[in-house]
Amino acid sequence: MEEGYEKYGKFNLPFRIPNLFSGSMVILPPKMITELRSAREDVLSMHSWFDDENSNSHVFFTKHLPLQGYHLKTVRQAAKLPDTIPNLEREIEQSFDRALKALGKYEQLNMGEWAEIDPLELSHCIVQRLTWAVLGGKELANNEELMKLVQDYAISVFTGVAMLRVWKRVIGPFVTASNRVRVWKIKRILGPAVEHRMEAFQKYFYNGKDNKDILDSLISESYRLGPAHHNIHEIIMRVLMLSWAALHTTSGALANALFNLAAVDQNTGQDYRTILENELQAVFSEGSKLPVMKPRWTKITLSRVVGMASFLKETLRIHMVGAGQHCRRVVKEGGHTFSNRLYVPAGVCICVSGIIIHSDPENYPNPKVFDGLRFGGPYERSREEMNDSDVKLTMPTKNFVVFGGGHHICPGRNLADIELRMALAHFIENYDLELVSERPERSFMWVFQTPPLGLRIKIRRKS
């Protein structure tokens, strides 16, 4: 992709690259991103591309998720639910403890010893529980059997997709048989909870303002849409789809953040753990004019961790998940002609490359170098009005495309932002980590960028 950009994209020309399983993909030059974002769904379809890439009927066991996307509306609103931040704060410590127990490191750390952990494994466990605290509440998030099944399901989705690419869809039911069993077990646990809430909704018909989590929102939205949507299976699959998306994006971002936290800053020689720990002390210190409140985390305090927001945005800039963003399939009969007269036939998949955009020195000075404070310095008590409004972590621009844009911008980006800030803050405040001279090289699996696989960092619980 980078070679194609040097030959063609840099000169505002598209180029084609092979796709391991589905022919080829046309990479549009970055200057066409605005037009790509604004195109109608019946011209350039994200749904068609997503369904083809993920084989929905065999992986998510329904054909209706992308087309009837009220689950996207509910996750978009999740960050605004009054119980979201309190639920996450109550769950954060338990999520870390349960994750460390699952990895067999809890007792070792409790004894004050150093322990080696795989940041990606740790992040999977933590993000899974935090996400479910917002998806379905504390009781479901603390159900160990459910969490194990949901995590295994989410990880197996990509394996199923890859096998379907190789073995075609005629044997789809056999390829994804293990996940069908997991879904059956998940429905056995989750089904009664969904049914109970649906009965409560029918009985009291409460207002949407009373929704405590995403599951409540899904149920109330399904009733608003009519009887055809009162389907326990469909609601559960929507929950699993949201959980799957969070596990493969937010957990990867948290793991990459931990790797970056362990690396010494190449510009200043300082370590980011100290920088961000000092910022947290400034935000929560009693000397601050900001009232000391319990719970500590509010919309105000979240906006105060400016350095952390910048650190996370830089992590996402360099270590974004996919090599291609804004992926679409041309569905308009006869193909589509862009404003620059570029014609793309119907059925062809197109995208722009986020890695290229984020690595362009015209967009970011020294783009290959990780600069955790590139977008904003740490909060200072002497500047009480300082907040993260200039960092714009979740706001898409033509130069920052992690969350997509246009009609199909990531609906869970604000929730992911909250989870990442709170999880990283908890780690910094409660654990030491052994610093390394430089960060490991990034890894790729197909077109997906992953945290370094199999590498570990050493951590120790603070006294």
Largest sheet: number of strands, sense, barrel closure: 5 strands, mixed
Radius of gyration: 22 Å
- In spatial order, strands of the major sheet run 1-2-8-5-3
Q: Estimate the helix proportion, in percent.
A: 40-55%
Give a count of the beta strands, DSSP E runs of length 2 or more.
Answer: 12
Kindly estimate the percentage of residues that lie in beta strands according to DSSP.
5-15%
Rounded mean pLDDT is: 83
Shape descriptor reads globular
Low-confidence stretches are none
**Intertermini distance:** 48 Å
Structural class: alpha+beta
Tally of contiguous helical segments: 19
Describe it for me?
This protein is of the alpha+beta class and 463 residues long. Helices cover 50% and strands 9% of the residues. It has 19 helices and twelve strands. The protein has a five-stranded mixed beta sheet. Strand 10 and strand 11 (448-450) form a beta hairpin. It is globular and about 65 Å long.
Fill in the keyword field for this structure.
single chain, 463 residues, alpha+beta, five-stranded mixed β-sheet, three-stranded antiparallel β-sheet, 50% helix
